[in-house]
Amino acid sequence: MQKNGHDAASVVRDTIYRATMALDDQKWDDWLNLCDEEFHYRISAFSPEINKDMIYLQGKRKDMEGLVKLLPKHNTDHSPLRRHTSVYTVEVADDMSSAEAVSSFVIYQNMLDGVNSHLDSGESRLFLVGKYYDKFKLEDGKAKFVNREVRLDNRRLDKGSHWPL
């Protein structure tokens, strides 16, 4: 891998930001190429009413490949989602083979067609807020996602939430 943990942390941050750009641009294959073959993905939120986590989406890389292939066939609002991601922490393992990161995200939806009567066409609205909890494999100067948990602060999801977040 790199010479030190600082270099590895930079590679991890770069991978997180590349994932953000790929998801924003709906370049699903580019996003999946940042993921290891053992990748696991999960979207969850805590419900105080039932005192448990609710899982909105969960799957391995193969499941996510199937999901993104079907996305063009979904009846969906075409208003794009834009993510603002801030990496908080990156912890690189002593042996430089893995890393973990925590990032916050805010996702905005840019309304294109005025689907919601209270929003004019072209207006942006807050869509979701939460944190990414990521685990990476570090190898050959690259970081690959092996796990991403998307922890939502929101518990009500709207159109577009069947997309990877």
Largest sheet strand order = 2-1-6-5-4-3
- How many discrete structural domains? 1
Helix- and strand-based class?
A: alpha+beta
Number of helices: 3
How would you describe the overall organization of this protein?
The chain is an alpha+beta fold and 165 residues long. It has a single domain, classed as Nuclear Transport Factor 2, Chain: A. Helix content is 22%, strand content 45%. The chain has 3 helices and 6 strands. It has helices at residues 5-24, 28-33, 61-70; strands spanning 35-47, 52-60, 81-92, 98-110, 124-139, 142-152. A 6-stranded mixed sheet has the order 2-1-6-5-4-3. Strand 1 (35-47) and strand 2 form a beta hairpin. The longest helix has 20 residues, at 5-24. The protein is globular. The two termini are 28 Å apart. The mean pLDDT is 87.
In short:
The chain is α+β, with helices and mostly antiparallel strands and 165 residues long. It contains three helices and six strands; from the N terminus they run H-H-E-E-H-E-E-E-E.
Throw out a few tags for this protein.
165 residues; Nuclear Transport Factor 2, Chain: A; 3 helices; 6 strands; globular
Question: Which helices and strands, and how do they pair?
Answer:
Blueprint: H1 5-24, H2 28-33, E1 35-47, E2 52-60, H3 61-70, E3 81-92, E4 98-110, E5 124-139, E6 142-152
Parallel strand pairs: 1-6
Antiparallel strand pairs: 1-2, 3-4, 4-5, 5-6
